[in-house]
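User: My collaborator sent over this chain with a note saying "see what the structure looks like." That's all I know about it. Can you take a look?
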Amino acid sequence: MNLNNFESMDPVMLMSIVNMKIRDEFGDLDALVKYYDIDKKTLIAKLAGAGFDYLPEAKQFR
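Assistant: Without extra context I'll predict from the sequence alone. Here is the result:
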């Protein structure tokens, strides 16, 4: 799934997709945002607005 339109995605689905991609394909958030060429701060803010925080030690949003 392409994340280039993440700003218009449902935040719950976005969180699920991002966590899956970090776990299965990228290993961390930095690699994911670099691959999709998206702004890390904007992605984090979008998910924070829905109540999800990024936990670097767990490498996932919760």
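A starting point for your reply to your collaborator: Residues 11-26 form the longest helix (16 residues).
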